[in-house]
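Posting this for the archive.
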Amino acid sequence: MIRAETLSKSFGGVRAVQNVSVSVPEKSIFALIGPNGAGKSTLLNLLSGIYQPDAGSLTYGDENLIGLPAYRRVRLGIARTFQKIRLFKQLTLLENVLAGFHIHHETPFWRYLAFGDRGRFRDEARELLAFLGLGEREGERAGALPYGKQRMLEIARSLATRPKFFMLDEPAAGLNAAEVDFLLQRLVDINRRGITLLVVEHNMDLVMNVAQRVFVMDHGEPLFEGTPREVQANSSVVAAYLGGEFAA
């Protein structure tokens, strides 16, 4: 579905991503892991259009993504969440999800929020809230939600864009065990809808239970790619993580 060839990105003298080639199969759950500072979020920013690469190629199906800004990529069916939650905290849960439907209009975003015909999206927005366990709280202010619920709301809003390729940047960060289990099941359910997932995550239990393929980075470079079982058995991956998260 999406293919990167020798992508590189530097910030000053820091090579955040260097010669990364990766291909995410359509309708798969693909995980991206690595120690802190490995370049995972930078790679996600390159794929989503937040950054443009210094070198390399990037295609989405037959589309060349190089030079294409993030909002244009969303219209192609590419969506993402962020490591730091970015909600409209003064708006209600329902209003936050309705905001995600904006890409299906030509109306400027501020006019859509204030005056747009959002009524036809309300039923779909409520279905997304219910799917993420928020159906009874649609009228509450987003900023008043507990942290874990805010994570679920951000996913619901991203799904409102109707993505085909959905990237999640550390969705389990800050969640308790029950919330991680709920998230894992929802990721499986989203994938069953035919949506390709790319998950950047430090929670190895979640990764090993949900991903079909795992791509490992270290110091901005590719380290290893394989099935969860192959990743767990690879000595280079174990060394990069100091053996802690992959110990038997």
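Strands lie at 2-11, 14-24, 29-33, 55-60, 63-64, 78-80, 165-169, 196-200, 213-218, 221-226. The first strand starts at residue 2 and ends at 11.
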